[in-house]
Amino acid sequence: MKRRAWLLLPLASCAKREAFVAVAETVRIVDIDRGMVTVDKIAKTKAEWRQALSPTRYWVMREAGTEQPFTGEYDKYEGPGVFRCAACGIALFSGDHKFISSSGWPSFWQPLAPQNILKRQDGDRTEVLCIRCEGHLGHVFDDGPQPTGLRYCINSIALKLTK
Ligand code: FE
């Protein structure tokens, strides 16, 4: 009797742990076609991110690196479009809110939706990340144009333009 009880307990606790792990963390974001939606957060290991992203994109998005100014694909782009997270695809910025700054990085005076980004204190700066995959995008400064006075200074390589 005693022996059987001892055997059952670890099995039960094991099953519970698996059930807990299977519950994905979700987040509410704005989808440009569907409005507010609930999506799964993306959680990958370092090794999985390394496989999914190019080396430079991995360095910028997972290690908070900064691409060289004036070298990215979008800093001089002035057309329309939606800028999506290069790692997980959610819409982050709009061409409607983009302006040409002298910084050498794509600059926006607001995100497409505040729900879609995450802000985190980074020393004396404010880091901007994708809410879904927590990929590093860049920083936000208070020297931008009106109406917000903000400048979201974003690495081109963290974005993918769709029209
Ligand atoms: Fe993302």
Question: What do these coordinates show?
Answer:
The protein is of the alpha+beta class. It has one domain: Peptide methionine sulfoxide reductase (Metal Binding Protein, Guanine Nucleotide Exchange Factor, Chain A). It is built from three helices and eleven strands. The chain has helices at residues 2-22, 46-52, 55-63, and strands at 26-31, 35-40, 82-85, 91-94, 98-99, 107-108, 117-122, 125-130, 136-141, 151-154, 159-162. The termini are far apart. The structure holds fe (iii) ion.
In short:
The protein has 163 residues and is α+β, with helices and mostly antiparallel strands. Helices cover 23% and strands 31% of the residues.
The main sheet comes to:
6 strands, antiparallel
CATH architecture: Beta Complex
User: Low-confidence stretches at least 5 residues in length (pLDDT < 50)?
Assistant: 1-20
Strand content: 25-35%
The count of strands amounts to 11
Distance between the termini: 68 Å
Approximate shape? globular
Q: Report helical residue fraction.
A: 10-25%
Which CATH class is shown?
Mainly Beta
Helix-strand topology string: HEEHHEEEEEEEEE
Look at the structure and give the mean pLDDT.
90
- With strands numbered from the N-terminus, the spatial order across the biggest sheet is 5-6-10-9-8-7
Supply Rg.
20 Å
Q: What small molecules are bound in this structure?
A: fe (iii) ion
* CATH homology superfamily name: Peptide methionine sulfoxide reductase
Task: Indicate the structural class.
Answer: alpha+beta
How many domains make up the coordinates?
A: 1
Figure out the total of helices: 3
